[in-house]
């Protein structure tokens, strides 16, 4: 199972970031890294990362590929 995520799907539509993760833990790691480098989030907590993943799930955009 792999998961496709894009920042645009959770409201950051000016960010062109898209990624494919092997599972939610992998996605969480990639997102934390992306938040620091691109969105200037100094400490991407688990709460923030989980929230983004949940939003992507609920919008139906966290596609299983
Ligand atoms: Zn982004």
Can you put this structure into words, describing what you see?
The chain has one domain. A three-stranded antiparallel beta sheet has the order 2-1-3, with helices on one face. The N and C termini lie close together (7 Å). The protein is globular. The protein contains two helices and three strands, in the order ββααβ. The chain is 42% helix and 15% strand. By secondary structure, the protein is of the alpha+beta class. The chain binds zinc ion. The site of zinc ion has 7 residues, from loops. Zinc ion binds next to loops.
Outline the fold blueprint.
Layout: E1 3-6, E2 18-21, H1 24-37, H2 46-58, E3 63-64
Antiparallel strand pairs: 1-2, 1-3
Helix pairs in contact: 1-2
The structure holds zinc ion.
Estimate percent helicity: 40-55%
The secondary-structure class comes to: alpha+beta
Contiguous helical run count = 2
| Ligand list | zinc ion
Task: Report the order of strands and helices.
Answer: EEHHE
């Amino acid at each position: 199972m792999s998961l496709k995520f894009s920042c645009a799907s959770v409201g950051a539509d000016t960010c062109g970031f898209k990624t494919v993760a092997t599972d939610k833990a992998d996605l969480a790691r990639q997102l934390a890294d992306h938040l620091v480098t691109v969105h200037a989030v100094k400490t991407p907590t688990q709460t923030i990362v989980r929230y983004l993943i949940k939003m992507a799930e609920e919008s139906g955009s966290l596609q299983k590929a």
